[in-house]
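Task: encode each sequence below as structure tokens.

Item 1
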Amino acid sequence: MRNNIRYISFAVVLAALLTLCSCGRGISLRRAPITDTTLTAKQLDSLRFDREHHYSENYNFVVRAKTLYLLKQLPEEALVGMTTDSLLLTRGDHIVVADIHVVPTDPVDSIWVQVAHDQFTFGWTHESQLLPAVVPDDPISQFISFFSDTHYVIFVVIIILIAAAYVVRTSLRRNAKIVHFNDIASFYPTLLTLIVATSASFYASIQNFAPDTWREFYFHPTLNPFVVEPVLAVFLVSVWAMLIVGLASIDVARHRLPFGEALLYLSGLAAVCAADYIIFSVTTLWYVGYVLLAAYIVFALWRYIRHARAQYVCGHCGQPMHQKGRCPACGAINE
């Protein structure tokens, strides 16, 4: 009971902090209406472009490609065949959008973007060449970009699945505690796996049915669920729920198991959660994940209710017990 009160208090404090944060950085997602008569024509065009492309002038990027070439002259000069010069940006260079120019006669890409690295290094490039070569200058956006790269995803998936299989197999062979199969008497670990699986499926659903909403989040990320659209707010709440329930699971394992067994149990829990994330985020992209998620929820709840839920409490030390008899913690006999 005391532990439950601690977790509830933590959640209340966290919600209060997030409410205060709603006055900070996340407020940048609320843009002025484009019908505001106090704005100039150029500002209105910039706002329209921002809503359609999710970035505008003064937006900051970091070059992630090996090289990015910029045209020093105006785009029209290159289109008419005039002699032009170029300059080179390399990976890690920080740039800012200085201007956006539309050239309707350009057969390749009508949108040209002028970016500046410093006051002496600036030039033009097609938007179609710029965006694949850069990432927003924000750690959340860079995290999303890193795990959206196909090569990294394949590598991470292989490593995680191998690690998950190894940890689960080791735990089963040692008859050690592991979520879903030989779980401890606490619902927090099972709840964590369900939150991870549901969040992964919901994340893939956003990409399937609301890709523009996810693109907006990519360019203007925040961890504050109170300043984004409802669909993103639900996703961010699930992320915070993972953190809270994860901490609760660590605390429960630390008190219910010896240090070595707790470490092995938490490693297995992390492996199962990682596998859940990969399986449900990938399968939901092909719409199979919804059926698998429903089946997984039923399986996880059935395993917990049937095999993990503690029906008794030791009369000597208060440790939860699955059945009457000798307490595994203190050795007292409970009839």
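Item 2
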Amino acid sequence: MKYTQLGRTGLKVSRLVLGTMNFGPQTDEADSHAIMDAALDAGINFFDTANVYGWGENKGRTEKIIGNWFAQGGDRRDKVVLATKVYGNMAPDDSSLWPNHDKLSALNIRRAVDASLKRLQTDYIDVYQFHHIDRRTPFEEIWQAIDVLIQQGKILYVGSSNFPGYKIAQANELAARRGGTIGLVSEQCLYNLAERRAEMEVIPAAQDYGLGVIPWSPLHGGLLGGVLKKEVEGGRRASGRSADALKDTKTREQIQAYEDLLDKHGLEPGEAALAWLLTRPGVTGPIVGPRTAGQLESALRAVELELSEELLDGLDEIFPGPGPSPEAFAW
């Protein structure tokens, strides 16, 4: 496994991030533990989760699965850089009766971090991430709450997720003026070959402010994982949003051209899509969310792939991206 610094920090993290969203809803606890063991054995030390994972009446379940894995010992917790998120509603029942159990108020941040620590069976979180912007809560309040948690030793670093570029700038400018926390150190955003809008402003903002970029959905919901090839071979067919996307003739032709190009170079689509992200400026590492040990093994091979300039140029022709801001929408 290869490692890099997380943004401008001294923290060393693996070039692949283990996403845990499937733990609970699609992967049972025993298999989830086996995947985490395999990831750690392979050198992946950066694990990502969120307090709402498990979803619905099972929200919090994923953090509990991770906490039970930590409780097995073997220095599991000490070897892992643990990231979780706050924002989603964690109310126990009718949310209208619990108006302060979501978003980024100082009250909810304090409550949410303590609940996550209990579920995760740990006394600190390495990277505490804001899952979404909160349009109602000022950053003065957010940073004041974060300063207290850092002083208490409950969190070490703070990251964002799904932030636009201007909010990254706003958050870090205020953090600098306050002189407390060092501000955001990472941004977790939707970014892959087929969805490159983050290149316009989010990634440039992250680079300017020293945030490590952590792409989620690196295979674009399975579209970049060889979905057409699997259909031909009689394997798993596209479903959900991927199936809907392939109903569009232009999208289907684009994915077919992508798979044909990689077949020409003797590469597996999913592995190449991950390897492409590892070539992108500012990217710390993409989040891989394996449902099985086999999917983890495939993701690991991406770290060792070397993509030729010819292939990179070919990928840019198929998925050109929007271009940088402001040239993408102005002169």
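Check on item 2: The CA atoms of residues 105 and 137 lie 6 Å apart. The longest helix spans residues 249-264.
End of task.
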